[in-house]
Automatic annotation (TrEMBL):
Compositional bias annotation for Basic and acidic residues: 1-15
Location of this chain's protein in the cell: Cell membrane
Disordered as annotated region, ranges: 1-37
InterPro entries: MATE_fam, MdtK-like, Membrane_Transporter-Flippase
Keyword Glycoprotein recorded: no
Organism taxonomic ancestry: Bacteria, Bacillati, Bacillota, Clostridia, Lachnospirales
TM region positions: 66-87, 107-128, 148-166, 186-203, 224-241, 247-267, 288-310, 371-391, 411-432, 439-458, 470-490
Record-given protein name: MATE family efflux transporter
Length: 507
C-alpha cells in the first residue's frame, strides 16, 4: 500500500490540512457559521455555498448516509487517477514483457513527480480555502498565483531530470539493455512533457479549494478516457501510426494529461469566480511561499518515502530476475485499484471527524471512525479473497506467461496477506490527520516502508536467496504498522476524545 497510499495520502493530507484549519479557527476565534461552512465545502460539497445547511449536514445527517454522500465523489476521482498506471501497464504487457518491467522500474520517479505537484497543490489549496473563509479575496488570489509559480519550479526540476537523468536512474537499477531503453523512452517523455500533469493538478486543486469537486471529476475522467483510447493506438500502431511500445504509452498518458489540464484551466476561468487570476504585477512573495511549503513539504515527503521504498525494492528484486520486478509492478497496480474505495471512504471520514471535533460531538466522531473501519475491513477481506483465489486470472490480464505465473501466483498470495491489516492502518491514519496528529501518520508510513519493509526484504534476499521470503516482508511490515497504529489510536483517544467527552458531560 505504499505508493497508492501515496496518491491516497496526498488527498488525505489535503483534506486533513484544510479541516485542521477549520478546527483551529472554530476553537480559537469562534468563526461564524457562514465562514465555517465555506471551509467545510472544500472537502465535502460539490459546489461552494455560504449557508449553514452544509454545516448541519456534517453534524446531523445519519452517519452511514453522510459517509456515502461525502466519500463517493472521492472514490470515483481516485479510481480514475489509478487507471492511468493500470491501463499503461496492461497494454504495455501485451506489447513486450521487458516493456512492462521498464514501466515498473521508472514508476518510483513518476510517482515522485505526481507527489511533488500534488503536494504543492495541498499547500496552496489549504491557504486558498483559509483565505476565502476569512473573506480575504486578495490573499486567496495571491496564494493561487504563488502556487502556480511553485508548480512551474517543480516542472522545471523534472524537465531537467527528463533531459539529463533518466538513463542514470534506469542504470542504477538494472543492466539489461532492452529494459533500460524502454525505461528511458517512457520516463523521458513523461518528465519532459510533465507540464501536462503539473498544470492539471494545479488547476484541479484550485477547483477543489472552492468546493467545485464535480468539475475535477470531469477533468480527471476525460484525461483517463483519452489515455485508454490512445494507449492501444500508440503502443501497437493502429490507424497507420507506427508501433511505439513504451514510448507510445507515455505519449498517450501526457496527451490525456494535457487535455485534462486545458479543461481544468477553462473551468477555473469560466466557472470559478472565487479565484481571480491575473499575472499583472506578479512577483514571488516569500511569506506566502513559506506558508505554502510548510504544508506542502510533509505531503511531498510522505510520497518520497514510498518512492524510495519502491526504488529500493526494485533493486532487491533485480538481483533475482527482472520478472520479479514485473510481478511487483503488477501487484502495485492491482493494489492501487483495490485500495481506492477504502481511501475514498477514509478521505470522506476526515472532514466529518474534524468538523464534529470542532463542534464538540465526540460520539459522532467515534461513530464515523467505527463505520469507516468496518467498511474498510470488509472490503479488504474481499480483495484478499480475490488475490488468494484468482491470482492466475489477475496475472493473465497482464499477459503473464508461464515463467511469470510461477513467480507471480505465490507472490500475489503472500503480499496480499497485508490486506488483513491495511484497512485498520488507513483508517487510523485518517483519524490522526483529522485530529491534527499528522505526524503519527508519517511515523506509521516510515516504519512500514523504510524502517521495516526494506531492511527485512534485504535481509531475506541476502541471507536466504529465497524470493518467496522477500514477498513476506510486506505482511511483516504491515503487522508492525498496525501495532503502531492501534497504540497511537488508543493514545489519541485518551488525550483528545475522552477529555472532550468529559467536557461535554460537564457542560
Amino acid at each position: 500500500m505504499s505508493k497508492y497510499e501515496k496518491q491516497e495520502e496526498l488527498k488525505r493530507e489535503e483534506l486533513s490540512q484544510e479541516e485542521q484549519l477549520l478546527k483551529t479557527e472554530a476553537n480559537n476565534t469562534k468563526l461564524t457559521d457562514d465562514s465555517k461552512n465555506v471551509k467545510m465545502t472544500d472537502a465535502c460539497e460539490e459546489s461552494r455555498t455560504e449557508n449553514t445547511a452544509g454545516e448541519n449536514k456534517m453534524g446531523t445527517m445519519p452517519m452511514g448516509k453522510l459517509l456515502i454522500s461525502v466519500s463517493l465523489p472521492m472514490v470515483i476521482s481516485m479510481l480514475v487517477q489509478a487507471l492511468y498506471n493500470v491501463v499503461d501497464s496492461v497494454f504495455v504487457s501485451h506489447f513486450d514483457q521487458d516493456a512492462l518491467t521498464a514501466v515498473s522500474t521508472i514508476f518510483p520517479l513518476q510517482n515522485l513527480m505526481i507527489g511533488v505537484t500534488s503536494g504543492l497543490g495541498v499547500g496552496f489549496n489549504a491557504l486558498i480555502s483559509k483565505s476565502l473563509g476569512e473573506k480575504n479575496q486578495k490573499k486567496a488570489n495571491d496564494a493561487a498565483k504563488q502556487g502556480i509559480f511553485l508548480e512551474l519550479i517543480g516542472y522545471a526540476i523534472f524537465l531537467l531530470i527528463g533531459l539529463f537523468g533518466i538513463e542514470a536512474f534506469m542504470k542504477s537499477q538494472t543492466d539489461v539493455a532492452k529494459i533500460i531503453d524502454y525505461g528511458v523512452d517512457y520516463g523521458r517523455i513523461c518528465c519532459i512533457c510533465s507540464f501536462g500533469i503539473f498544470a492539471q493538478m494545479t488547476f484541479e486543486r484550485m477547483l477543489q479549494s472552492t468546493g467545485r469537486t464535480l468539475y475535477t471529476m470531469k477533468t480527471q475522467a476525460l484525461g483517463a478516457i483519452i489515455n485508454i483510447i490512445l494507449d492501444p493506438i500508440m503502443i501497437f500502431g493502429y490507424f497507420g501510426l507506427p508501433a511505439m511500445g513504451a514510448a507510445g504509452a507515455a505519449i498517450a498518458t501526457v496527451i490525456g494529461q494535457c487535455i485534462a489540464a486545458l479543461l481544468a484551466i477553462y473551468y477555473n476561468l469560466k466557472k470559478n469566480p472565487d479565484i481571480q487570476l491575473s499575472l499583472k504585477g506578479f512577483r514571488p512573495e516569500g511569506d506566502v511561499i513559506g506558508r505554502i511549503l510548510s504544508i506542502a513539504v510533509p505531503s511531498i515527503a510522505m510520497v518520497a518515502v514510498g518512492s524510495v521504498m519502491t526504488y529500493g525494492f526494485n533493486r532487491i528484486l533485480f538481483t533475482f530476475t527482472p520478472i520479479a520486478v514485473s510481478v511487483f509492478g503488477i501487484f502495485y497496480k492491482v493494489q492501487s485499484m483495490a485500495f481506492m474505495p477504502v481511501f475514498g471512504l477514509n478521505n470522506g471520514m476526515i472532514p466529518i471527524v474534524s468538523y464534529n471535533y470542532g463542534a464538540k460531538q465526540p460520539d459522532r466522531m467515534l461513530k464515523a471512525v467505527k463505520y469507516t473501519m468496518m467498511a474498510a475491513i470488509c472490503f479488504m477481506l474481499l480483495c484478499l479473497t480475490a488475490m488468494q483465489v484468482i491470482p492466475d486470472l489477475i496475472l493473465k490480464v497482464f499477459d503473464a506467461q508461464e515463467d511469470m505465473m510461477a513467480i507471480g501466483i505465490p507472490a500475489l498470495r503472500t503480499m496480499s496477506i497485508s490486506f488483513l491489516f491495511a484497512g485498520i492502518c488507513i483508517v487510523c491514519s485518517g483519524m490522526f490527520q483529522a485530529l491534527g496528529k499528522g505526524v503519527y501518520s508519517l511515523i506509521v508510513s516510515l516504519a512500514r516502508q523504510l524502517i521495516v519493509l526494506l531492511p527485512v526484504a534485504y535481509a531475506f534476499a541476502k541471507f536466504t536467496r529465497n524470493l518467496e521470503l522477500v514477498w513476506l516482508s510486506f505482511p511483516i511490515a504491515e503487522v508492525v504498522s498496525v501495532i503502531l497504529s492501534i497504540a497511537m489510536a488508543l493514545q489519541t483517544k485518551k488525550k483528545i476524545i475522552d477529555p472532550l467527552k468529559n467536557s461535554v458531560k460537564t457542560v
